[in-house]
Amino acid sequence: MAETIHILIGTTSGNTEYLADQLSEALHQQGFATQLHDEPDLGTLPTEGTWLVCLASHGAGDYADSMLGFYDQISLHEDPLKQLKYAVIAIGESCYDTYCKAGRHLDSRLQELGGKRLTSRLEIDMLEDDPEQKALQWLPNMVNALNSEE
Ligand SMILES: Cc1cc2nc3c(=O)[nH]c(=O)nc-3n(C[C@H](O)[C@H](O)[C@H](O)COP(=O)(O)O)c2cc1C
C-alpha cells in the first residue's frame, strides 16, 4: 500500500486549490492516497511523511492567505524535520520582482530544517504557463523519487 501524500495548499484566490485537486486526482490514479490541507497546520501535519506543497505568492512575495499561519509556524520551528520528504510547486506571476518568492522561501526553509527534497521545485508562471499541464508533466519526477525509495 503506497503511503499518503499530504498536499499543502497555499491559496488566496483559489487557483492553487484547483491545481492541488488535479494533482490529487492524478496521484489517486497512480495508487497513492492523498490528504488535502487547505489551511495547513504544522501542529497536526505529520512530519514523518511526504508533503507536496502547492504555494502561491501574494503581497510582496508573501505566503498566500491559507498558509500565512503556516509561515509563522515554520519560521519559528526549531526541531529538525529529518523524516520529512517533500516537493514544492511555487505559483506566481513573472511580472513581480518577488516571483514565486513564497515557494522558494519554503523550499529553502525545509532544506534548512533537514527535510529531504524529492525533486527540484517546480515554478509555475500564471502569465505564461498552462498550470495543470506543467504540473502533471513534472509530477512523475516526484512519484519516481518516492517509488525508488521503497
Ligand atoms: C495582490 C497580488 C499580489 C501578488 N504578488 C505576487 C508576488 O509577489 N509574486 C508572485 O510571483 N506572484 C504574485 N501574485 C500572483 C499570484 O501568485 C497568482 O495570481 C496566483 O495565481 C494566485 O494563486 P491563488 O489564486 O491560488 O491565490 C500576486 C497576485 C496578487 C493578486
Layout: helices, strands, pairs:
Blueprint: E1 4-10, H1 15-29, E2 33-37, E3 50-58, E4 62-63, H2 68-76, E5 85-92, H3 101-112, E6 116-117, E7 122-125, H4 131-147
Parallel strand pairs: 1-2, 1-3, 3-5, 5-6, 5-7
Antiparallel strand pairs: 3-4
Helix pairs in contact: 1-4
Bound molecules: flavin mononucleotide.
Flavin mononucleotide (FMN) is lined by residues 11-16, 56-61, 64, 91-93, 96, 98-101, 126.
GO molecular function, one term: flavin adenine dinucleotide binding
Protein name: Flavodoxin
Organism: Idiomarina tyrosinivorans
What does this structure look like?
One of its GO terms (molecular function) is flavin adenine dinucleotide binding. Pfam families: Flavodoxin_1. Keywords: Electron transport, Flavoprotein, FMN, Transport. The protein has 150 residues and is an alpha/beta fold. The protein has a single domain (4-147), classed as Rossmann fold. Helices cover 35% and strands 25% of the residues. It contains four helices and seven strands; from the N terminus they run E-H-E-E-E-H-E-H-E-E-H. It has helices at residues 15-29, 68-76, 101-112, 131-147; strands spanning 4-10, 33-37, 50-58, 62-63, 85-92, 116-117, 122-125. Strands 1, 2, 3, 4, 5, 6 and 7 form a seven-stranded mixed beta sheet that branches. Helix 1 (15-29) packs across helix 4. The radius of gyration is 14 Å and the shape is globular. It starts with a strand and ends with a helix. The structure holds flavin mononucleotide (FMN). Residues 11-16, 56-61, 64, 91-93, 96, 98-101, 126 line the site of flavin mononucleotide. Flavin mononucleotide binds at residues 11-16, 56-61, 64, 91-93, 96, 98-101, 126.
